[in-house]
What we know:
The protein is of the alpha/beta class.
Amino acid sequence: MSEQRELLFVSSMFLYPVDTGARIRTTQILKGLKGGRFRITLISPATRAEIDEYGHHMDELSDRYVSWPRKERGLLFNLARMRHLFSSLPIPVITDRSAQGMHVVETQIATGPDVIVVDFPHTMVLMPDRLSVPTVLFTHNVEAEIFERHRKVAGNPLHRFVWSNQYQKMRCFESDVLKRAGRVVAVSERDKTAFNARYGVSGVDVIPTGVDLEFFDYQPPSDAPNVVFTGSMDWMANVDGIEFLLDEVWPHVIRQLPDATMTVVGRDPPAQLVARAQQSGYAWRFTGWVTDTRPWVRQSAAFVIPLRVGGGTRLKVYEAMAMGCPVVSTPIGVEGLPVEHDRHCLLAESAEALADGLVRVLSDRSYREGIAGAARSHVEENFSYQNAAKVFEAICLAAIPPA
């Protein structure tokens, strides 16, 4: 192997536990890069508790790990950060800004890396104004698009004002940082096209979505009339989707299948939403955070993605397909993924159509198993996280000017 180059990987979030799509994608890329053409220095914020519990995992992701202290985020964190509403920067961006983080980044840049990877546009708030080292910006979504979709579905005028305010700021910020980076990596061709159409950014590189096919091994779908959703329930796009499922979709489901049950797997479900589901009398349960989502998926005959808001690509789609759990989704739920309706999954936009899709999968075993088998084959033939990491490595090498 040729001599390793130095790669500095900057993240504004601690990468464990691996309980969000962003953490899954980032950790998979880092694991795939480790031991290859780069010697990796990973830097991120971390609490003392995170280091104590998950610090040993940093050796799986990097050759060297450097952190700066992050304060624990209490129950009032989301309310407290609203004080930044009238900042010139979007709230999620200014929340990630840290004087200590900026100092650590500056110190590590001074060691002379060959290339820097910035994980998420938000993280650019930690970078110096002048980027003297080749910089690759790793995007996971079209950030402003998510804010725009929240604005469109907001029913409350105050909420609509807040989302409109934040959308305009995110659009300006995203446009600026995409143009500052030497290279931009997107997670789908759709996002690449959107960056060009929205901001005039061309030459964006695209990496494939990857799945750990051994970890998410295949089993035939369950016969139990249970539907499952997995996703962090402290993310507003997921909350909106589950509210849509509860209020507008589920009544149509139980009208046709009274024994149908629903399991929502994900950390920090809002207490008000849990209470509403209980008061409805439906057979719904919220697990909260779990160490492993696979047992819950395997107990289900359908995997629902009722999203009306969101961006990027849904790793959970390929994970469910790999495990043999048929996916029933809105078009936004599989946006950017090369999947075919009625072959790899079922797609439906309206509440009634989504309910009909769930009922069909739950009640027709032959159809359910056909979708499950075709989906697993599709993932096996086209996607693995090792392949995604190889593409990412090539992009980082190409970012370095010839000696």
